[in-house]
Each structure stands twice: as C-alpha cells, then as structure tokens.
Amino acid sequence: NLITDNRGDEPIVLFSSNTHTSVGGNRVTQNARCAAGTGSASIQLDGLNFYNSVVGNTLDGCPTYHIYLHDRASFNTVVGNVLNNALLGAIRVDATSHGNTIDLNICTNILNATDPYLSDGPTYAIGIAAGCNDNYIGPGNIIAGCAGGTISNLGGNSGNAGTVPVGIGTRVPYKHLDVRGGDAAVTTTDFAYNSAGTALTMSLGGTTGNQHGVVQVLTGGGVSSGNGKGLVLNPWGNAVAIGKSAPGSMATLEVGGNVAFVVPGGAPTLDANYTVSFQFVSNTGLKILMRGADGTTRSVTLTLA
Questions:
Q1: β-bridge pairing 184-187 and 199-204
Q2: Which long-range contacts (CB under 8 A, 24 or more apart) does 193-196 make?
Q3: In this predicted model, what pLDDT tens digit does every residue of 254-294 receive, in sequence order?
Q4: Contact between residue 167 and residue 159 where contact means Cβ atoms under 8 Å apart
Q5: Are 211 and 180 in contact (CB under 8 A)?
Q6: Mapping DSSP to helix (H, G, I), strand (E, B) and coil, where does residue 109 land?
Q7: Helices (H) and strands (E) in the chain, counts
C-alpha cells in the first residue's frame, strides 16, 4: 500500500494489523486543530503495525507527537522526515514497540519542557519508553530547539543519544559502545590504510569463544606487526594495576600475581639513566644491567642453580 502526496490538517492513522504500507511525501499541518485543542499525532501506527515505512513526510503544527509508534508497532522504518513544532516530542515509541529504525529525521521546536509519558521527566524530541527493545536510533537524526532533552532511549536499544548504548555490528549493545565481531581503532588525521599514519587498535584474539584481548599501536598504515610503536600508560603519573581491581600506593606498577619476563638473548641498550634490564646469558646465567645517574651501564651476571 502507498499513502502519498496528501496535504491537509487531518492526521494519518494506520489502524491495527497494517503491514508493508509506505507513508511518504505527505504534508500534514495541524495548525487549525491545534488552535481548537484537538491536535493529535500527525502520523500514528497503531497496534500490530509491522514492516511499514514512514519516509520523507513534512509534519507541522502543534500535535502532541508528530510520529507515534503505538502499542506493538514494530519493525517499522521512520526515516527522512521533517518534524516541526510538536508539543511533547517529534517521535514517540511505546514500551511494547520493538525493532524499529529511526534515522535521518529533522526535529525542530519541541515546545514543552515536561512529558508525563516518559518516566524521566523532560521532553525529548525522540522518546523511547522503558521496555522497548532492539530499536535503532541512527546518528543521522538532526535535533534543534527542543525545550528538554534531545533523545530519551530507555531499555535495550542502540543509538546516538549521549549515554545511550551505541552498537556497531549489533542492534543490542552490551556496553555504552559495543563493536561486535571486529576491531576498534583510533587513528591520526593522515592515516591511510597500509600506507601512512598511526593507529591505536583494540581487538580480541578471535571473533567467537573465549579470547584474549589485544592493544597495539601500529605505524605505516597499521598493517604488519613489524610496524609496532610504543604504548604509553599514565604519562602524567600515578599507578598502573595489573590483576587488581584498583592500584594502591605501593608503587607505580602493581601486579596482583606472578610476573614472568621474556628476556632478550642480546645485550639490551639502556638509553636513559636510572633504568634496569635483564639479559639471557645461558641456561645457568642471567645478567642484570643498570644505567646509573652518571650515564654508565654496569652489570652483574648471576649463576643459577
């Protein structure tokens, strides 16, 4: 079904059990209804509306909400709409509505500062009720002139709303940022894959199962292990803890467990004063090297039983 190119004051309502209907290119301006105190949602998808599209509509006037996904309206797409001058919010999603995609909408001038529907109080241009799950609120939504907050996203949804979880590769993020089945990278402005620039990457040893974690700095476009670069922890001081829930005050590095060193076979070069290193000499010999305050490196070889 296609509902398009309508112009007027009356809202558009898809009543229960509509599927695969496209509502696009309409202009609903409820100024007269709002003046009479009878304004309602400009476009409402009522109970059990699945797999519908609300795309490219221009909605104005002062309804309570411009687009309302009501009572189990699920798996619908709300994209590319221009929504102006709503009383309580541009888009509202009920607690029983799941799996909807909301992106690339322009929401302006949300008038009131409180919304009794949302338990956390202020108006939100896009309001997602507690209990909603798997709705995707995309990063392309543009919101301006909202008297309260921009997006309320309560429950198991992914999106771009401040402290709301963001999922990459998943619609149900585990934490505030969840990169599912891939690596995360912070790169320099000149970064070009396999060519130039530096990348700090964070990854797992594999994409499934119980894996170890990997943090690595790579230069030269971040490809081969031969391009590894140094990693600095706490450059402005204070302690680092390994195997502990928090560092104490005993030392700069605190390890809650045994420590194992893989020592080099060749003589290490100590390029700074007050540094200590170890060198493998033989199966029964271990050399300890120290560069003192005078810049001289001295050593002693221990014989091991």
A1: antiparallel
A2: 193/221, 193/222, 193/223, 194/220, 194/221, 194/222, 194/223, 195/220, 195/221, 196/220, 196/221
A3: 888 888 888 878 888 899 999 999 999 999 999 999 999 99
A4: no
A5: no
A6: strand
A7: 1, 30
